[in-house]
Amino acid sequence: MKKLKILVINTKFLGDLIVSTPGLRSLRHTYPNAEIIFLLRKGFEDVLENNPNIDRIISFDARLKGNSNLKKVITGIKFVKELRKEKFDIVIALHPGDRIAFWAWFSKAKKRIAPKKQSFNFLFNVLVDVKEDSISYLEYYTKIFEAAGVKIDFNRTEFFIEKTDEQWADEFINQHTIENESIIIGIHPGASEPTKMWKKEYFVQLINSLIPLRNYFIIVFEGPQDEEIIGYLKNEICSKNLIFIKNSIPKVAALIKKCRLFLTHDTGTRHLSVAVETPTITLIPEDNKKYWNFYSEDQKHHSIIGIRNQSLDSSIGKPFLDGITVEFVHNKIIQLMQQ
What we know:
The chain is an alpha/beta fold. Helix content is about 35%, strand content about 20%. Helix 12 links the parallel strand 11 (about 280-285) and strand 12 (about 300-310). Helix 8 runs parallel beside helix 13 (about 325-335). The chain is elongated, with a radius of gyration of 22 Å.
């Protein structure tokens, strides 16, 4: 008897991949003997490569290979042909997309599930009446998985850390002579857009207010878009109790797990921190609350709500996340450390 073959597609980024893990876990429970393949954006394989609810990963290079439109078309056709060879029974598209719609159609899967609101929805035969940015993304993904007959067991997100990455994190801490009694606070000061980011000067003030206290040790994490703000922090702060780190997602996850607290914006590392069960403070714009503020304090997650300041006044500089004071964040960190 042929094993059921299921393709799940999500070509978004770190946070979305992690938020889809409750659905993947429940999909495995619903279809324990199926072969589950996940199609994601190239470069994000290590987010899910250790997830036991997935049998295999297919990665897609969104840029496509080739320096001409013709070569890109040829590369795209080859990719579709490879998908078709897989003979999937079910395709679950976790977000809309013209390219994804054609992948699903040409796969010839008998059941093709996707959100209803998209240009080529007629290429799917199970349409889910959900819209992005209308409900929480956790609920959004849940509803799409439920259309495949999946009952979500519980909403906890997951990230699976390899033993070798745990060992690396231990060695990293030892190499930087972080003493056992030190309280490690992780900070990721970057985000995908300026209006989601606190002012860099505020991070300087916050870190300077924390370092002299007790035995706090600060690890600042650098993402792929954070060169400017990290450079600024390195120039402004010098302390033996402050280090900077840039590494792969699995090693970042292993190091975040070693932190007593993690402070970040509404970005992928926030979801990573919650998934490894590190207490997390997120600075989040008010207009993102509806669809991205779905974690609770029971999950050790704490939100501090700000507003987007999009002023282009030269005295202010870049747009930034406003309405959150350094004093408030400092006090929240101290409060959580005392619990």
